[in-house]
Amino acid sequence: MFVNLVFGITQYERSMKMNKFNKLASAGILMAMSANVVMADDEHAGMYAVTITNLTKGQTFTPILAASTKKGSTVYTLGSPASDELEIIAESGNSQPLANKLSSEGNALDTVSSGALLGPGQSVTLNVKMNRQFRHVSIASMLIPTNDAFIATNSIRGPKKKGHSVTVYSAVYDSGTEVNDELCVNMPGPFCGGEGFNEADGEGFVHINIGMHDIGDLASSQFDWRNPAAKIVIKRIK
Do 26 and 125 sit in the same domain of this protein? Predict the structure, then answer.
């Protein structure tokens, strides 16, 4: 009886030790896997130079947001209501709320703003960090003077190899969040100096902007455009 009891205790101790060992081993494997993922991301870490050119005759781009994003992340969806963050960009040119949203939801590795207006025919280059998980590029900017027009890209796949580049173009979109009355009182920026963001509704969905039609304070001969309005070159530099 005593022998059997001792044998049972010994077996129990061995079992407990094995369970503890297995747990430690599993934890070690998980840590190693996590470390490998980080190392893999580090090995694929690099940088894109994103060059945006304003192709319009008379429109100005507000400070442009560029972000390295995950595949499938979106700034806008044609035919669907604009997000609050997109509405703010399209009506006021403020891109910080969208940058915060992309980062907080885990859809962006790096967000950068050009910090200045971009006039007709001008170009600006923004450098954004990238890695294996975040190898796409999204941009957004408002056109001024307009009510709620913007340019944007949704997660454009960047080049894999250093020195290679990808070129895409953006049409002018309308956030559908403000009536296109073309009145300066409702347009921000140096030319009009009017109101930026407000909560009044427009068409209710994102669509292709139809341009200027001389119904308000602005002459279409000066401020109208034809698509595309922006050229975007994504080059891997690191």
Answer: no
* 178-227 pLDDT, tens digit each: 999 999 999 999 999 998 877 767 999 999 999 999 999 999 999 999 99
| Residues 71 and 138 reside in one and the same domain | yes
- Residue from 40, 47, 214, 28 nearest 126 by CA: 47
The rounded distance, in Å, linking the Cα atoms of 232 and 204 is 28
| Same domain assignment for residues 121 and 174 | yes
Whether 26 and 132 map to the same domain: the answer is no
Question: In 3D, which of 184, 185, 180 has the Cα closest to residue 213?
Answer: 180
The encoded tokens of residue 90 equal 């399209």
Q: How many CB atoms lie within 10 A of CB 120?
A: 15
Domain match, 20 and 137 both: no
> Which tens digits make up the pLDDT trace of 57-75?
999 999 999 999 999 999 9
Q: What is the DSSP string of the chain?
A: -HHHHHHHHHHHHHHHHHHHHHHHHHHHHHHHHHHHHHHHHHHT-EEEEEEEEE--SS-EE-S-EEEEE-TT--S--TTSPPPHHHHHHHHH---HHHHHHHHHTT-EEEEEE--S-B-TT-EEEEEEEE-SS--EEEEEEEEESSSSEEEEEEEEEPPSSTT-EEEEEE--EE-SSS-----GGG--STTT----------SSS-EE-----SSSSS-HHHH---S--EEEEEEE--
Task: Show the domain range for 6.
Answer: 1-43
